Amino acid sequence: MRGILLGLLLANVLYLGWQFLLPEELERAGSTAGVAEQDAAPLALLSEAGQNQLIPYRAAPEPGSVQDQAASESPAPATAQFCAELGPFRDREDAEGFMVTNAGRFAMGIEARQAPAPSIYRVFLPPMSSRELAASTMEALRAAFASNGMPIDSFLITQGELANGIALGLFAEHQNALNVQNRLQALGYRVTVREEPKSNEEIWVIVSGVESQAVFLGHWTEIQLSRSYIRAGEKLC
After folding, report:
1. What strand order describes the sheet that includes 107-125?
2. What is the pLDDT at residue 22?
3. What SS3 state is found at 9?
């Protein structure tokens, strides 16, 4: 019973203390809210705000704007130039002399080319089994030429794929080679005619770095006065 009384007494003391402290806490909270309210900036509509109250923000780049900027900063394309080829010259010395004479006109360089030429026709007796047999056959062949009035040169082939054969001449005309073949076959010899492609070296001068075709043609008119035997053509630079 005594314990219950002591508990009630303690509860009343705590309640009185809480009642005493509560007004002070409420007053402190109210003053803090007032200070915060005074410090806060008033809200205003965007249409009512002045220009000095607005904070500018940088707009986000639109897609492709970086590429457009890079394209605008890229260097301008180089001016188109004209290049040409002149020739063929008579020989390398002729081309070198031309370059020295016209060094002040444009940049130049020499280019050697293999140009196709008319074929030649080789007439021969095929290789034999030994050098001795080939030599004796050639002696008999020359005797047959002399007795039949045939002015045909012959010599023994000593090396290469036709070694131990007998050469009977090179002819520019196919028909002349066939005539020799027919005459020797009539004497009982097996004669071969072989076409051999031929090429000639041509010397050309390559011109580069000319401002335009019109500028080149102006020079070309003067060049033709001294070398009418060469021709000119456009060449990719």
Report:
1. 155-156, 166-171, 107-125, 192-210, 82-89, 231-235
2. 54
3. helix
- Residue 105: helix, strand or coil by DSSP? coil
Q: SS3 of 91, please?
A: coil
Query: What Å distances lie between residue 187 and 111, 140, 162, CA to CA?
Result: 50, 11, 22
- The string of DSSP codes covering 19-74 is HHHHHHHHHHHHHHHHHHHHHSPPP--TTTS-GGG----PPPPPTTHHHHHHHHHS
Distances from the Cα of 136 to the Cαs of 132, 156, 182, in angstroms?
A: 6, 10, 22
pTM: 0.48
Cα 158 to the center of its chain, rounded Å: 48
The tokens describing 150, both together, are 């045939």
- The neighbour count for residue 162, using CB atoms within 10 Å, is 17
7 Cβ neighbours under 8 A, 6+ residues apart: none
The CA-to-CA distance between both ends of the chain, in Å, stands at: 121
- CATH topology for 82-116+200-235 is Alpha-Beta Plaits (3.30.70)
Question: Any idea where the domains of the chain sit in the sequence?
Answer: 1-30, 82-116+200-235, 119-197
Query: CATH 3.30.70.1070: does it fit domain 119-197?
Result: yes
Residues 131 and 135: their CA atoms lie apart, in Å, by 6
Q: What is the pLDDT of residues 212-236, one digit of tens each?
A: 999 999 999 999 999 999 999 999 9
Distance CA 38, CA 31 (A): 11
Helical segments of 151-212, H only: 174-186
Given 3-state DSSP classes, what are the helix, strand and coil percentages for the chain, each rounded to the nearest 5?
45, 25, 30
